[in-house]
Every structure is written in structure tokens, then in C-alpha cells.
Amino acid sequence: MKININGEILEVKNDITVTGLIAFFKLNVKSTAVAVNKEIVPRSGYAKFTLKESDKVDLVTIAPGG
Amino acid sequence: MNKNTDGDMLKIGKYTFKSRLIIGTGKYPNFATMKESAEVSGTEIITVAVRRIDFNAKENLLSYINPDKFTLLPNTAGCYTAEDAVNTLRLTREIDVFKTDLVKLEVIGDSKTLYPDNEELIKAAKILVKEGFTVMPYMMDDPVLAKKLEDIGCPVVMPLASPIGSGLGIRNPYNIKIIKETVSVPVIVDAGVGTASDACKAMELGADGILINTAIAGAGNPVGMAVAMKNAVEAGRLAYLSGRIPMKLYAQASTQMEGIVF
Asked: What is the rounded distance in angstroms from the CA atom of residue B165 to the CA atom of residue B199?
């Protein structure tokens, strides 16, 4: 299925969870936050949160700023 | 008598800091210079933004800044509505490297001046205070607004000295002074500092701290400027605590006339 990650379309396996996505991108879970369709997903819910076709996922972290 | 600023702490809500200098992490020529500047500045609080992960980036800020050593302060730079600012800061609750609930709230009203939008700022501050954040609002140098933000529950107010990144220094020193007299929470001057004398002047006016990014990051030698800012903030603070002499229009001789020969 296709989902939108940080503005880009990506082909992922069906029923991938947020935990699966974090593993796929090899992200450090401690410095990452996730929103799906602009709703924040709490970290405790990553394993149970299954993504659907066309979901818009934001994977965010800290960046330089003032 | 105090000969230095030892034991003089900055209190922001339930948090206490020794350093009165907060520095940003944007616009440095590279991460190594940012890291060294942060270290020599003596800062304990470092502001950062929250952004989508760049999968192509070769390195990231966290490879250089240890979140156990510094308090990372998330900001809402680039947010133009209360809703966007609140949602950005809610995201930070899921990010472990933020070890406090301190947040720098900025809601921009205009892209040319980057002046804050007062209405949206107040709206966002109310929500965030209710949700338990320790809200540090970037605001106009407006004493009335400062009082409103204090009443909402912000344990600090952060008036600008002049527009973000402008380096114009303190455009309205009297307002900074009035804000200091109006609120009982600490006043941190955020934005507009151009060089060390601006930081020193702000502290002499009674500011409790300064937040600096561009003046250090954009300097010819950021590390040198970071040391200069550290010294300026400390000198200004000590001068403020020590009490400057009143200004007079005419001279007052510092040498006694008694015993003069000719």
C-alpha cells in the first residue's frame, strides 16, 4: 500500500505499524515523534497503531533553531 | 558584599539555572561550531526547533548536543496560529530528549518583521499552561501584554529587543525597564541582540536573562562571540545588582578641592 511520509509517497507493506515504520527507517525512538493525519500518536500506542492506505505520516525530531 | 554572581540563580517556574544566557542552535556554519559555542557560552538552556526528519541528512544536532548536559528548549518557530504552535509543542511530549516541560512559545504574525501575533500568542499560552507546560512566551516589548501573560500563568516573559535576527539591539530600552517593573516573573530579552554591549545593556536594565541565536551564530567567529556574550551577560548582571550611579547633567569632581595648592 502507499502512504505519505513527510510529504513523500512511499510503498510499504500492508498493515505496517508505527513501530514497524520506525524500525524500517532505523529511527531513534527517543528523539522521534509521530503524527498520523495530523493526530499525534502517543509512544505507548506505536505497536498497536496500524497504518492504512493513503495515511499521511509525519515523523519529526529536533532541528536547529533559535 | 557580592563580588560576583555566584549564588545568583535564574528561576523559571520550578526550574533553576545558574547561567542567564540561553542560546539558539540555528544558522551556525556547522554543528561543530555550534557545539563549541554552546560549551564556551556557559549556557544551560539550548533552543531547538521541531521539524520533519530529513532522511538525507548526514548528521543531526543530537550527535553534537548531549541532552543530559543541556536543557533542550523546543520552540514553535514558523508557527503562525495558536493551533499550530500548540500541536507542535504537544509533539515534544513524545520526544524523550526534552527532559522538562519548558517550551518557548512563539506565534508569528508577519513574515517580514517576525513580530508575534498577540491574540494567537495569548490563546496558545492559555491552552499550554492548562496542559501543564512551563510556557516561555516570545512577545512584543509591551508591558500590558507582559502582565496578561503573567496572569495567564507564564512564569517568565520574553520581550524582543528588536526583530529576530536584525542585530539592531534594544530599540526600546525604557519598555524593557517598564516590563521589568510591571511583572514579578523573570524577564528574558529574546531576539535582536547584535553584539556584547546589547546583551550587557539589557542586563543592566534589569533583564533576568537573554536569549541569543543569530548574534553568535552569524558572527565572524561564533565561538569568540559566545565567550563575549557570556562575559557581557555576567558583567551586566553584576552591574545591575551592584547599582549604577544616577545620571547627572553636569560634572561632579571626583577629586576633592580641599588642600589644592594653586
From this structure: 14
Q: Which of B79, B135, B60 is nearest to B102 (CA)?
A: B135
Flag if B96 and A42 touch (Cβ within 8 Å). Answer: no
Q: Compute the half-sphere exposure of residue B60: CA atoms within 13 Å on the CB side of its CA.
A: 20
Half-sphere exposure of B166 (CA within 13 A, CB side): 17
| Residue A53 scores a pLDDT above 80 | yes
The beta-carbon neighbor of A31 closest among B75, B97, B165 is: B97
Tell me how far the alpha carbon of residue A52 is from its chain's centroid.
12
Indicate the residue of A25, A33, A62 with minimum beta-carbon distance to B62: A62
- The pLDDT value recorded for residue A11 is 92
| Chain B neighbors of A61, CB-CB under 8 A | 50-51, 53, 60, 62, 95
Catalytic (active-site) positions of B? 104
Please judge whether A63 and B61 are an interchain contact, meaning their C-beta atoms are less than 8 angstroms apart.
yes
> For B137-150, how does the pLDDT look when each residue is reduced to its tens digit (9 = 90+)?
999 999 999 999 99
Residue B120's pLDDT band, with cuts at 50, 70 and 90, is: very high
